[in-house]
């Protein structure tokens, strides 16, 4: 890429950031996400992982918050704060991975359906409609039940069942891009399918894909928490959904141990809200019509 092209892209990125910075809700979401991601990434450095081992727990069962255990303990005497920090790693990993998988599938199918049209579009869109009318959570539960338990299974279950909406959005945007005059000129000059898609169509739909990815992460995290709460996740991994399941199964609710339920619940709600705020802010930046409103 030439230097002028890089300069134009840097200038466009600068304008986008300045526009994003004017959105207070988006900035709050970005700060919250950055903080949570840093805490999750630095968890092995700022905490002792051995505290997750139930055989090495030193606290009392369902001990309330204190100076030693800031968020109390679970049914095994482990620190709830430690579990929440390490649970963020699994929940965010599954949410981001599943979202990337679903967005990748939806983007490929949406672009191919809009670009080639005809029988290709008919087959791909009927396939998309089939998955769209089926409850994604039910399909994810079915896949998680059939396949071997583990984080990879949860990622596949969520990613393979949540792509249809992305496919329809990308298809609509691709049709809009391909109706522009420069696409016709590119074809007239001998541009093939790969050239048109890679050089013109994909850059035109990437902003929508990026915004949709940001908004879809929250949904994927909620889906992961739901599957883990139902006992379909990795039993050896600590996640926010698994914490809620353990709290419910061990009688924390009836025992009044609110400190075991509130932290993972607030963490899920906070992350989903932060991703939503960032996604809406990005949507207003990348969509001129929303910015004018």
Question: What report would you give on this structure?
Answer:
With 293 residues, this protein is mostly helical. The protein has twelve helices and no strands. Helix 5 packs antiparallel against helix 6 and helix 7 packs antiparallel against helix 9. The two termini are 35 Å apart. The relative contact order is 0.15.
* Helix content class: over 70%
Low-confidence stretches: none
Under CATH, the topology can be stated as: MetI-like fold
CATH architecture: Orthogonal Bundle
CATH class: Mainly Alpha
**What does the largest sheet look like?**
none
Assembly of the depicted chains: single chain
- The amount of beta strand, in percent, is under 5%
Rounded to an integer in angstroms, the radius of gyration calculated over CA atoms is: 23 Å
- Helical stretch count? 12
Supply the key terms.
293 residues, single chain
Produce the secondary structure layout.
Blueprint (H helix, E strand, L loop, with lengths): L2 H19 L2 H23 L33 H37 L1 H16 L2 H11 L4 H9 L4 H15 L2 H8 L4 H37 L10 H10 L8 H29 L1 H5 L1
Question: Quick gist of this model?
Answer:
75% of the residues lie in helices and 0% in strands. It is mainly α and 293 residues long. It has one domain: MetI-like (MetI-like fold, Orthogonal Bundle).
């Amino acid at each position: 890429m030439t230097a002028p092209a890089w300069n134009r892209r840097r200038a466009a990125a600068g304008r986008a950031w300045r526009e994003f910075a004017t959105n207070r809700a988006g900035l709050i979401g970005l700060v919250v996400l950055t903080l949570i991601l840093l805490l999750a990434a630095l968890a092995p450095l700022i905490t002792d992982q051995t505290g997750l081992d139930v055989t090495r727990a030193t606290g009392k069962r369902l001990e309330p918050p204190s100076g030693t255990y800031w968020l109390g303990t679970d049914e095994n005497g482990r620190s709830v704060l430690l579990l929440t920090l390490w649970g963020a790693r699994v929940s965010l990993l599954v949410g981001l991975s599943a979202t990337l998988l679903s967005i990748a599938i939806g983007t490929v199918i949406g672009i191919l359906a809009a670009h080639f049209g005809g029988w290709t579009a008919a087959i791909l869109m009927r396939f998309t409609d089939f998955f769209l009318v089926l409850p994604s959570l039910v399909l994810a539960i079915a896949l998680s039940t059939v396949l071997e338990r583990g984080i990879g299974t949860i990622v596949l279950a969520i990613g393979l069942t949540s792509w249809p909406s992305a496919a329809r959005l990308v298809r609509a945007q691709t049709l809009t891009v391909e109706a522009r005059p420069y696409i016709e000129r590119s074809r007239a000059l001998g541009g093939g399918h790969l050239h048109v898609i890679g050089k013109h169509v994909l850059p035109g739909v990437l902003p929508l894909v990026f915004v949709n990815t940001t908004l879809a992460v929250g949904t994927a995290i909620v889906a992961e928490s739901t599957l883990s709460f139902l006992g379909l996740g990795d039993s050896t991994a600590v996640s926010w959904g698994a914490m809620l399941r353990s709290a419910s199964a061990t009688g924390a609710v009836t025992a009044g141990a609110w400190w075991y339920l509130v932290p993972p619940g607030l963490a899920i709600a906070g992350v989903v809200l932060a991703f939503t705020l960032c996604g809406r802010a990005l949507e207003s930046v990348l969509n001129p019509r929303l910015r004018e409103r």
